[in-house]
Amino acid sequence: MAKVSRRTAEDLTGRRFGRLTVIRQLENRNNRTRWLCRCDCGNEKDVAARDLKAGKVKSCGCLRREGNRKKMDISGQHFGRLTALYPTDRRDSHGVVYWVCRCDCGNQTEVPASNLVNGTCKSCGCLKKENQDKIQDRLHHIDGTCVEFLEKRKKRKDNKSGFRGVYQGKNGRYRVSIGFRGKRIYLGMYDDFENAVEARLEAEKNIYGEFLELYHEWEKKSSDDPEWARRHPFSVSVPVPK
């Protein structure tokens, strides 16, 4: 049963406000008279009486969406490799319209208009894949090891200790390991963080350092004598802790 305020509310049943037709009164909220309305598009909406009479609300929201669509007509425009074809009825969490786009590679994809306009989406995904492939082509994978990774390794922020290869367990102790040639090498457990880091750095010096030194020596010699490099592919035995 609808809760009516002490003062009899004006009966708005059947009246039209923009695209909204008032159906019936609802329970008051925050001392405001509420009315259930049906929009011309078929949706229903709960609206405060004062917003209806003041003209603040004229539809279920479809009027605003249509206005946004007209305001952002990007059909035929190019955004990177994408050409906007036509809008869909799909919306993102912010109400932005998804557009069907054709990529230069021939694929079609749906992208929010804002992502096209601000440049965060420039292809169906093929551009990202090509860039990733180019990065891989620039990397030197020698004997199962990436040279660039060893040379530019940094502190890790994805574990509790904050240092690469040093992981703090639930018991408070630090487990130390190092990756080399596609394998994870266990270096021991330590009670003290500084000792754990020292063990990790020592392993890097002995394993990574020696590997890089030998590789760069081989690289220099191979650039001077490609024929020698062909006969002597890079292969080295680096001491690994047991």
Give the radius of gyration.
Answer: 33 Å
How would the global form be characterised? Answer: elongated
**Percent in strands:** 25-35%
**Any low-confidence stretches, pLDDT <50, length ≥5?**
1-6
Count of folded domains: 3
Protein described:
This protein is of the alpha+beta class. It folds into three domains: 48 residues, no CATH class; 56 residues, no CATH class; 93 residues, no CATH class. The protein contains seven helices and 13 strands. The longest helix has 32 residues. The N terminus is likely disordered. One of its GO terms (molecular function) is DNA binding. It comes from Merdimonas faecis.
Features:
242 residues, alpha+beta, 3 domains, four-stranded antiparallel β-sheet, 7 helices, 13 strands, elongated, disordered N terminus
How are the elements arranged and paired?
Layout (H helix, E strand, L loop, with lengths): L15 E2 L2 E6 L8 E6 L4 E5 H5 L8 H10 L6 E2 L2 E10 L5 E7 L4 E5 H5 L8 H13 L2 E2 L2 E2 H5 L14 E3 L5 E7 L2 E8 L2 H32 L1 H6 L11
Antiparallel strand pairs: 1-2, 2-3, 3-4, 5-6, 6-7, 7-8, 9-10, 11-12, 12-13
Protein name: AP2/ERF domain-containing protein
GO molecular function, one term: DNA-binding transcription factor activity
